[in-house]
Queue: 2 jobs
Job 1
Amino acid sequence: MMRLAMHVCIAQSEGMTNPTTLLLGGTGKTGRRIATRLTAAGHAVRAASRPAFDWHAPATWDAALDGATAIYIAYPPDLAAPEAAGQIRALLRRARSAERVVLLSGRGEPGVLPAEQAVRDTGLPFTILRCAWFCQNFSESFLRDPVVAGTIAFPAGATAEPFVDADDIADVAVAALTEPQHANQIYELTGPALVTFADAAAILSGVLGRAVHYVPVAPADYEPVLAQHVGPEVAAALTSLFSFLLDGHNAHLADGVQRALGRPPRSFAQYAAGAITAWQPALAHAS
Ligand SMILES: NC(=O)c1ccc[n+]([C@@H]2O[C@H](COP(=O)([O-])OP(=O)(O)OC[C@H]3O[C@@H](n4cnc5c(N)ncnc54)[C@H](OP(=O)(O)O)[C@@H]3O)[C@@H](O)[C@H]2O)c1
């Protein structure tokens, strides 16, 4: 019975005899984009998430790791979670066929360093992607409904953030999973410009053809709103993290996309124009 469940829940592309790339968080914003790209290029991919693979259920790990030669890790809900480093270290100890590891990390976030160290301590070739805020938080995550409602009430003040497009992160991750020159690199991935939340709302207004406002709020007022989506415990941790990340220390650009791919990153406006189908059904329903 258990065996059958594993087969149902771990999505695997054809080609079991090929080296297999394991994507942990394979259904998430970056994981599914990486899966699409690797599959299209003919790689065997195992995209793992719950219930078949669960970070909090080590009994599920070995089936996911079996035969995996390259591993991508997107650790939920945040790599700075206190248990992240220990779980990643324990999982990678069991990854006997692994030849390289790519870790999705955060930028300007001291709390992620123990987890990054756990990856580095394996001695395997590694690539660490220290990312800015994802553009896709506005279309595939907790900011999507506020965009549709026309009011983004969020505790970011007037701080600018160089939002990065998850498609760029996926392009860099695919390169790191398949090309040797990215071994032992840390790439800091940002978009090409600093964008305030008010700028983002103005760009989204233009793309959607309807007003989207940004309203700065206090963290204490935002936390209960986020709790409706992720529960009170995660909301408390994330609200505190957001306040730290958006205090201005990350308001500068980095060259990771250019360095890894030899091309510039996509802008927030390019992202918004391409993401319009993410908001249209909800907008049609609302009108
Ligand atoms: N979002 C950002 O702006 C941003 C910026 C920088 C860094 N990051 C980092 O990116 C990572 C991913 O965050 P995200 O917000 O983008 O999430 P995401 O990758 O879009 O979604 C989380 C993924 O993890 C899976 N998952 C959730 N709980 C799990 C569990 N207990 N065991 C196994 N898989 C589980 C989810 O699938 P199921 O729910 O189906 O299990 C989903 O595939 C985090 O480490 C975060 O720190 C995010």
Note: The first strand starts at residue 11 and ends at 12.
Job 2
Amino acid sequence: MTRHVEKNIHAWTSKEDQEHFRSLIDEHDALVMGTGTYDIAKTSIRHKPKKLRIVLTHHPERYKNQEIKNQLEFHTLSPSELVSMLTDRGHKKLLVVGGGRMITEFLRDGLVDFLYITVEPKIFGTGNPMIATEDLDIELQLIKNAVLNKQGTILLEYKTK
Ligand SMILES: NC(=O)c1ccc[n+]([C@@H]2O[C@H](COP(=O)([O-])OP(=O)(O)OC[C@H]3O[C@@H](n4cnc5c(N)ncnc54)[C@H](OP(=O)(O)O)[C@@H]3O)[C@@H](O)[C@H]2O)c1
């Protein structure tokens, strides 16, 4: 989610959440994100071999000059087409970074095994939601919860049923 109209979530997420996010990146060999997320993150991404970042966009030609084959690629694919492509290329673990529209599509298409939600003790009232407005009915099973800091940031790890 985001705070109001602000795009950059690192202005308000805790350092513990950011550390957890970095550990998730380390554990996955492929990441997928939308263009809004990429535009915010691109200056801080450290590209390296064996870590493929995919940005889904309806306009991959706009990003052609930024592509790094097998490390940073821009595609127009449905979630299941993306998963097939990554499987064919030998990838084992995909991290769906977001935003909300993308997370919703992967959940709706039954392609999510685990969901990591960080609850920051903050109330914003407006902003981009974590899940887009759409009829969904997805059962989750809590498998881990942890308080990450004194202020009470909580990490919830769910498995989809
Ligand atoms: N709090 C958090 O943990 C968190 C995590 C991630 C992101 N965010 C924030 O959420 C906000 C929105 O991010 P976002 O724009 O990346 O999210 P999004 O709304 O999920 O994705 C929107 C864009 O991604 C592209 N896209 C998504 N699915 C696609 C598909 N199947 N095929 C082709 N293109 C597809 C499209 O780009 P085109 O318009 O180029 O076609 C679309 O406009 C950002 O401010 C970001 O910082 C927050």
Note: Residues 15-27 form the longest helix (13 residues).
